[in-house]
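Run log // design_07
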């Protein structure tokens, strides 16, 4: 998701801490983190190098952006996974993008991983969110301007995002978290989780127009 953002890098430091497999409640059906093609893409650059952002203006990019992503078992492929998580963060904070959120499919990787900026927390920290699922959507809606790193030069007002959601996910340590998120940050969650299901915000605009 693209808007002006305030940089915050300390979460990156956390990525160097070890993940504890014993704290991971991975799902039985969670797959190994990446395909061989995705591994090649990730290993093409170093941890501080952004990845190429897939755009709907490119046909093959557009096809991938419409696919659903897989859950990730964070106990597998841990070195590649950590590299990917760092590179995905570098991509969203890259001055060329300057987003407030990004989802893995936007760099060609169909894994349920997003980075987003928490405007509901002090200092607006960046957080890596793994295998997120929205459990509850509030009936109350909100009006919000949206843009997308994968949709060049388009911003629009969406009117049908829920005001608050209850979302569950894993953090980078594999800890299961469930929380209620409201207002602008909940729009970022909804926007990025849509990406994991192959849905773009322009689809939400079309849905609103057809009502
Ligand atoms: Zn987007």
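design_07 sequence
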């Amino acid at each position: 998701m693209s808007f002006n953002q305030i940089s915050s890098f300390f979460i990156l430091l956390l990525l160097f801490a070890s993940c504890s497999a014993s704290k991971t409640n991975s799902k039985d059906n969670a797959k190994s983190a990446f395909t061989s093609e995705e591994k090649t893409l990730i290993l093409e650059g170093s941890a501080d190098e952004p990845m190429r952002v897939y755009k709907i203006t490119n046909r093959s990019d557009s096809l991938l952006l419409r696919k659903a992503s897989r859950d990730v078992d964070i106990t597998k492929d841990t070195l590649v996974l950590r590299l990917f998580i760092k590179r995905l963060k570098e991509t969203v904070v890259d001055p060329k993008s300057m987003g407030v959120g990004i989802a893995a499919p936007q760099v060609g990787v169909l894994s349920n991983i997003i980075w987003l900026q928490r405007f509901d927390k002090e200092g607006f920290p960046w957080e890596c969110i793994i295998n997120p699922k929205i459990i509850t959507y509030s009936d109350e809606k909100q009006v919000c301007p949206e843009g997308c790193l994968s949709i060049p030069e388009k911003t629009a007002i969406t009117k049908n995002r829920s005001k608050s959601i209850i979302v569950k996910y894993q953090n980078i340590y594999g800890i299961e978290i469930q929380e209620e998120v409201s207002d602008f940050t909940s729009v970022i969650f909804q926007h990025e989780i849509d990406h994991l299901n192959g849905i773009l915000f322009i689809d939400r605009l079309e849905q609103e127009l057809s009502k």
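The radius of gyration is 16 Å.
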